[in-house]
Structures are given as structure tokens and as C-alpha cells.
Write a structure and sequence with these properties.
By secondary structure, the protein is of the alpha+beta class. The chain folds into three domains: 3-56, Orthogonal Bundle (Arc Repressor Mutant, subunit A), CATH 1.10.10; 65-277, BirA Bifunctional Protein, domain 2 (2-Layer Sandwich), CATH 3.30.930.10; 284-325, SH3 type barrels (Roll), CATH 2.30.30. It contains ten helices and 14 strands. Bound molecules: biotinyl-5-AMP.
Length: 330
């Protein structure tokens, strides 16, 4: 384990001061090694303070480029912005310059984008990220990257203590049993069967039949007051009743995404991981597609990301659209 990353984890624990000897014992290193790691953190721009009771880190100290990169087990350079128009827009610019394996991360977006020219509300406190890569896969399989991002986001939310599920194709929701019951009682105005915690916007450019680059934009309402978000949205901090360690969250997100999309890994694993985390399967759904509406029971996901809907009159593979969860399971 990287000492600096372990040190950040320890300092971020409950936010209180931790003494040098306690840190040394906890990390299994010498006091001199702790001191050296603190100095390195300070040189990298972390405001680690020394108090009579020990070292103290400010709130969420590591949500910056070097903080996320410390000990990151994923092949991305991290470009952090306090404020930006859209991280996806920035990823596109980087792609045009020939870059790859970059994660653009921002605290706030002023021109966040959703799918189909919709907007994305992105106040300070969120995790707004776009991961740019150049995978060697056929263009037709690019939707698997959206699914991988949904799985990675769900896992990072769960690690942060929030029981997240995936709604086809790209939403991450919170829909506990009590929440679902309350929504049913309230006639679920949002039509989502849950409250939206995160959304994903994948953009790509292909050359003939191969992907040129893919930018997966992931927007997670991390430490955000739901009052600042559209109706039907929720945040990690609201669900868990306290702020989120965004450095750790982002590192988990990037590591999981890298693992799922690694060239040596079978992308098929993404489908089974997605199935295990999906709330859409088994539900009655209505999907608005470019070619009309499909209604029925969502029974499966098929390569590279199509929702299989049993309409009662056969099975339809729906490749893109807006999905509404209807009440009842059949
Ligand atoms: C999405 O679109 O869910 C994709 C959102 C992707 C956002 C990320 S942030 C990092 C990267 N940079 C960007 O500029 N974008 C990506 P869609 O399925 O079309 O949902 C959009 C709809 O969700 C809006 O029309 C609102 O109704 C709702 N919405 C907007 N902001 C929200 C928020 N913060 N939380 C929950 N729902 C929101």
C-alpha cells in the first residue's frame, strides 16, 4: 500500500487530529516515514496542518488532481478543475489533441450536458468526471462502456454506503424498499421508480469500424443539497446523512471502470455485472425510442447494451431510448 495514500485515508477518517506515533502504528511504518509522507503531501498542495494533538487534514482535502492520482490503480492522468463548462467538452478537446487515458474531474460545471441536448445541473460538491480512452474495440460495442460506467458508479456509491441500482440505460438510482413504497403511494411523479443519484453521457468518435476515442461522462450528486437539484434527484450526502470523501469515491470509480474496460478483460463480464445491479429487469417499462414506443416487461440486457422487452407479442431489442418504469412487475 502506498504510504501517502494510506496516510490520506487515515487523516480523512473522522476528520480529527491523528498523532504521528498513532499514524506510524496504524500504517506499520516508522515515524520518520510518516513525517516524510506528510511533507510530500504538503509539497503536492495538501494543507495538512500540525496541531499539538497531531496532524489534521481539511474537509475533503484530496479532491484535486494529485490527491486522486495518489496511489491510483488505474491508468489515467487526472486533470482537475474547480469550475468548468463541461468535463465532456474538455475531454473532446483533449481527444482532438490526440490525448488518451485522461480523467477530467470538476467540482462544479456551469454548462453540464445530459443526453439528447438536455442540461445537467452540476453545482459545487459533486463528482463531475469524464474519462477519455482509445480502446481497441469495434464501434458497435461502444455502448458497453456506458454500462461499465454505470456498474463502476454503482459500486463506488455502495462503497460510500448508499444502496444504488442501475436503471437502463444510464441512470443510477436510489430505490430502497421504503422509498419505492412511498413513491408508489405518491404515484411516483418522476416515473423513475427511484431517485436519480447519477447520470452517464457517453460520446465517441469512430474510424470505420473501430472506436477512435470514447469519453464517458459520469455525473454523481456527491456532497450536494438536493434542493439545488431538479425534482426527483437525490445525492450521496442526503442519503447517507453526511459529506462524502470525494477523493476516495473518485479513485474507486476510476479503478472499477478501468478494471471493467481493461483490454485484457472480457467485456462480456460487464453485462453480468450490470444485470446483478439493475433495477429495470423484471419491471414493466415503457421505452420511448426514435421509432416509437415499446411497452412490456424488461427481461434482459443483450450485447452491447440493448434492453430486451417482452411485449407479450414477442421480444424486442431496444438499443436506445428513454425508459420509464411503470407500476407493477408484469
Ligand atoms: C444524463 O442525461 O443522465 C447524463 C448526465 C451526464 C452528466 C455528466 S457530468 C460529467 C459529464 N460532463 C457533462 O457535461 N455531462 C457529463 P439524461 O438521461 O438526459 O438526464 C438528464 C435529465 O436529468 C435532465 O433533463 C433533468 O431532468 C435531470 N437532471 C439534471 N441534472 C440532474 C442532477 N444533477 N441529478 C439528477 N437529475 C438531474
Amino acid at each position: 500500500m502506498n504510504t501517502r495514500r494510506a496516510l490520506l485515508d487515515a487523516l480523512e477518517g473522522d476528520g480529527g487530529p491523528v498523532s504521528g506515533p498513532d499514524l506510524a502504528a496504524e500504517l506499520g511504518v516508522s515515524r520518520a516515514a510518516v513525517w516524510k509522507a506528510v511533507e510530500t503531501l504538503r509539497e503536492a498542495g495538501f494543507a495538512v496542518e500540525s496541531t499539538p494533538d497531531g496532524y489534521v487534514a481539511p474537509d475533503d482535502p484530496g479532491f484535486c488532481g494529485p490527491g486522486i492520482e495518489f496511489g491510483l490503480e488505474a491508468p489515467y492522468a487526472v486533470e482537475h478543475h474547480d469550475r468548468i463548462g463541461s468535463t465532456n467538452e474538455r475531454a473532446r478537446e483533449l481527444a482532438a489533441d490526440g490525448a488518451t487515458d485522461v480523467a477530467v474531474v470538476a467540482d462544479e460545471q456551469t454548462g453540464g450536458r445530459g443526453r439528447l441536448d438536455r442540461g445537467w445541473t452540476a453545482p459545487s460538491g459533486g463528482v463531475w468526471a469524464s474519462v477519455l480512452s482509445r480502446p481497441d474495440v469495434p464501434t458497435a460495442r461502444a455502448p458497453l462502456f456506458t454500462l461499465a460506467a454505470a456498474v463502476a458508479t454503482t459500486d463506488a456509491c455502495r462503497e460510500a454506503g448508499v444502496d444504488a441500482r442501475i436503471k437502463w440505460p444510464n441512470d443510477v438510482l436510489v430505490c430502497g424498499v421504503e422509498r419505492a413504497a412511498a413513491d408508489d403511494a405518491a404515484d411516483d411523479r418522476t416515473g423513475r421508480g427511484g431517485h436519480k443519484l447519477a447520470g452517464i453521457l457517453t460520446e465517441m468518435e469512430g474510424e470505420a469500424d473501430r472506436v477512435g476515442w470514447v469519453a464517458v461522462g459520469i455525473g454523481v450528486n456527491a456532497t450536494v443539497d438536493p434542493a439545488a437539484l431538479p425534482d426527483g434527484a437525490t445525492s450521496l450526502s442526503a442519503e447517507r446523512g453526511g459529506p462524502v470523501d470525494r477523493r476516495r469515491f473518485t479513485a474507486t470509480l476510476l479503478e472499477r471502470y478501468a478494471e471493467l474496460t481493461d483490454a485484457s478483460a472480457a467485456l462480456d463480464r460487464v453485462l453480468s455485472a450490470w444485470r446483478e445491479r439493475a433495477v429495470t429487469l423484471g419491471r414493466r417499462v415503457r421505452v420511448d425510442t426514435a421509432n416509437g414506443t415499446v411497452e412490456g416487461t424488461a427481461v434482459d440486457i443483450a450485447d452491447p447494451g440493448a434492453l430486451v422487452v417482452d411485449t407479450g407479442d414477442g421480444r424486442r431489442h431496444v438499443h436506445a431510448g428513454d425508459c420509464e418504469h411503470l407500476r407493477g412487475t408484469e
